[in-house]
Write a structure and sequence with these properties.
The complex is a heterotetramer, with 2 copies of chain A (about 80 residues) and 2 copies of chain B (about 160 residues). Chain A has helices at about 5-15, 30-35, 40-45; strands at about 1-5, 15-20, 55, 60, 75. With about 80 residues, chain A is α+β, with helices and mostly antiparallel strands. Classes of the chains: A alpha+beta (about 80), B alpha+beta (about 160).
Chain lengths: ~80, ~160, ~160, ~80
């Protein structure tokens, strides 16, 4: 699956996009977060406080128990500040 | 109509094209958002912002804005809706966003325009970074934007 | 600023002049009222209105509009206010009224613009006569305009 | 004093403006209305139903018990319909 990071999450992770293949038992957005945090200090810092992180699956806002599957586009970003 | 772009736009020309020729339009409400030259909520911190950069999530931005437009049209009788949102580097005073709604009735025009701005503020995936004398600062989301958007939930 | 005139105006040019150069303005809300081509509240009675004539009370109009502007500025932190209202003969589709407010904050811009239109509708001495296929009809004042204006009393 | 009529009141009265000198006992807007109604059928018709008539003295909205005096500008008109 394709994972995207925006704004200060991108800065902390150190990249805007990565392709990942998590193990089969990672089936929710929340589980993906835990798995991603083990990949690097940058990931761990970016995803440390989920109160200031939003997640979208295939460009729709979802919660931390939302199912994920191979091929999904999963994006992590801070609360939005446009307009 | 939704447009997400780096280029500036001409609000007068947009308005002219928007309202042209529909004799059923009695009122148009437009909101134009600009880059302020000060930080946070304090106008006394003037001239500290050298500009900002708006990052967005291509694809999701358009998808969310279209969903917001659809929602507005389902709530109010609108003849037309226009949302233009810029991204990229913007100088102080630059135009950021334009929302316009056209209806037969002024109340529908006002409410739908206000609704679009409030929802856009909390749902459209844009992020601002302010370029200041002290470095670059990501702008924090505001609680008051959430509560502004939430009032439309109650009215539904 | 208040302008009462027979001539048409260019909303784009007005907007450009209105917002020019004040870096503290974060949002501009504008309402533009147009002559509809149908009678009353029923769009199906289309194309029956051949135009309208707006009569006003010279002197009192400006006085009341200035009082409304003063009231808006006392309620919200506004950098600028513009009200243009035409009188005389107007064709279907013609611009009647423009109200614009500029503030550092979008909520103040939206609310003050909405307030100005609601108060203008019930306090500015203008009267519309519609020219229709069946003759000339004085437009009746609407109860909903009174209630729209009254909600601002409660919020004061 | 100068009396002005607007919109359909002007049409019914048959003029937009007139100078009048009411007797000394006419000291309120309501008393002026009663005195004006006796001037012609047009006046009587225009001012028959005060629920649909507004009055301004010197360009400010007032009620039917508002004092009037020589030199005032007094206007009668229907509820406004601008905007």
């Amino acid at each position: 699956m394709n994972v995207l990071y925006f704004a200060w999450l991108r800065a902390k992770v150190g990249m805007g996009e990565e392709r990942v293949v998590p193990p089969a038992e990672v089936v929710t957005t929340g589980q993906l977060v835990e798995w991603l945090k083990a990949r690097s200090d940058g990931h761990a810092q970016a995803l440390a406080d989920l109160k200031v992180v939003r997640v979208a699956v295939n460009q729709d806002y979802v919660g931390w128990d939302h199912p994920i599957k191979p091929g999904d586009e999963i994006a992590f970003f801070p609360p939005v500040t446009g307009g | 109509m939704i447009r997400v772009q780096t280029e500036d736009f001409d609000p007068g020309a947009e308005l002219e094209a928007f309202s042209a020729g529909n004799g059923k339009v009695g009122g148009i409400c437009m909101f134009l958002g600009l880059v302020r030259d000060y930080l946070g909520d304090d106008p006394e911190k003037a001239a500290q912002v050298r500009g900002m950069t708006l990052e967005h999530y291509p694809g999701m931005t358009e998808r969310q804005l279209e969903a917001i437009e659809t929602e507005a049209r389902s709530r109010w009788p609108l003849h037309d809706v226009l949302v233009i949102h810029r991204y990229g580097r913007l100088d102080p005073g630059a135009r950021i966003v334009l929302v316009a709604t056209a209806s037969s009735h002024r109340e529908a025009a006002f409410q739908s325009c206000h609704f679009l701005m409030d929802w856009l503020k909390t749902k459209a995936p844009f992020w601002k970074i302010e370029h200041t004398e002290d470095g670059d600062l990501w702008v924090d989301a505001k609680d008051k934007d959430d509560s502004a958007a939430a009032r439309w939930d109650q009215k539904k």
